[in-house]
Task: structure prediction
Amino acid sequence: MKRICMLLLLLLAGATAGRSQSPAMNGFIEQLEGLNNELTAAIAAGDRTTMETVYLEIAELYNLQTGDVRQAAAPMMGGVWYNIACMRSLRGDVKGAADAFSKALDFGWDDYNYTLNDPDLTNLRADPLFEALARRMQ
Result:
């Protein structure tokens, strides 16, 4: 979970430098800051349901973006979808985890070693669906 919080903070830091450039970026950053605060609180509380909900809200927020904002936010989306896959795997929703992990790969998630060792993905890795997904990272 720390991985995506750091990515969100890096995106916020990088995008904040351009705040005066785009009202769309400013609005996106403000919304993302609020979601990041919710996510940080959920992680601290160990509230996986809220974590998944916030990650899905981040994905929805991303889907509403266009142009430069969408381009600037795209690098974090692999991590967002990866963590959605983790939350779904932890609650035993292997099909949902596989779907989310596939989206993470679509956004460039490629941390093969981390994925193979992340205990949050144990249920997904135990399923035959994972094999085909893992091949996409190699």
